[in-house]
Amino acid sequence: MTSPMITIRDVRQAAEVLRGKILRTPLVYSSTFSKMTGCEVFLKLENLQQTGSFKIRGATFKVLRRRSRIGGQGVVAASAGNHAQGVAMAAAQAGLPATILMPRWASITKQEATRSYGGQVILEGESIEDGIRKAKELAEGGKTFIHPFDDEDIIAGQGTLGLEIVEELPDADTIVVPVGGGGLISGVSLAAKAHRPKIRVIGAQAAACPAAYRSFREGTPVRVQAEKSIADGISIKQVGQIPFAVMRELVDDVLQVSEEEIGDSIVTLLERKKVLAEGAGAVPLAVLLNSSLGKSCKGKVVLVISGGNVDHPLVERIIRRGLFRRGRIMRFSVCLEDAPGSLHGLLECIAREEANVLHIYHDRGGRNLPVYQSRVELELETRGPGHAVKILDQLRAAGYSVSPSRHDDAFE
């Protein structure tokens, strides 16, 4: 049924080894997303897993299964974040040193998290591939290399997530899984299809780095050029050979989503479910909400929220951009007579429309302003595009000359 390199027996063995050593993460029903899409939507919340992502599964199984073969120099891995943290924690729990190669652009937050789990971090190169090359060099000196996805043990460990889904929801119809190098989706498909051969397993990928999408359609691993993506955890330029052998046989489709759709899904998960997901973790919801699932969007659909390790500054930018796109935040400027009470009158008009003032900047010294006028820049929280338009209409009806902000769509 599957690639001879790895079978469902390996996944079940991984589940036994990992029992009590990782969290069994919750599978929760979402009435909100179910109403939005017309199917029964469940979220597998791996963002609540130890180290904040599913990667601890494969890393722990690899270390424990091969413990007797790992020498005193310990393990070495390459990752921008989640695999790094998973390997560092797995090694620490096994009493082994861990050396982690991270690209120079890896976030400080993820570097420090990896160090906090006991990993020695070395910044190397501009890509994960650069780190993998260096890690393999270090492995020649006695360290044990742990690949992030192109490894049977890693796939088996990640597959335990799929076992948990089908054990808890045995009649699931579709599972949507983020896909980068392919380790997670190949493991999940092995577990799910062994339990229910007719279940559909769909890969979700950022269009900025469509390696799995193109490989799936061309029937062979394809190397792609990657653009910068919010979903950095799945920005892998080429799917692994071992995962692809499983994917080609067991995965039903791989779909793409845009950066805007990923950002909107992060905001939606936060706002509607109070779930913080990183870009890769939000990609399954983006696939569900952009209607590309087609016939797969029926019955019981499980979205794998694969991780929640997102930098705080990035979260803030994503939320603000998402709210702007939805018309929930608007910006504009108004020229006022520079006289007592002018600003009070403007704010009273806004208050009558029940908008919330987030920021205000009062400029009396603008280059093109007459000396008797001032310019007020406002940022408001609204209920949506219709509310924003109504606010503008009422301001203009009250005699205010309102100018658009280049960041606001309510004027288009």
Return the CATH class of the largest domain: Alpha Beta
Instruction: Characterize the biggest β-sheet.
Output: 6 strands, mixed
Strand line-up in the sheet with most strands: 1-2-10-7-8-9
Number of H- or I-type helical stretches: 15
Proportion of helical residues: 40-55%
End-to-end Cα distance: 55 Å
Q: Which stretches of 5+ consecutive residues score pLDDT under 50?
A: 406-412
Outline: elongated
CATH architecture heading of the largest domain: 3-Layer(aba) Sandwich
The quaternary organization reads as single chain
Q: How much of the residues is beta strand, in percent?
A: 15-25%
Rg of Cα set: 25 Å
Q: Order of SSEs, N→C?
A: HEHEHEHEHEHEHEHEHHEHHEHEHEEHE
CATH fold type of the largest domain: Rossmann fold
Please tally the β strands and state the result: 14
Structural class category: alpha/beta
The overall average pLDDT, rounded, is: 91
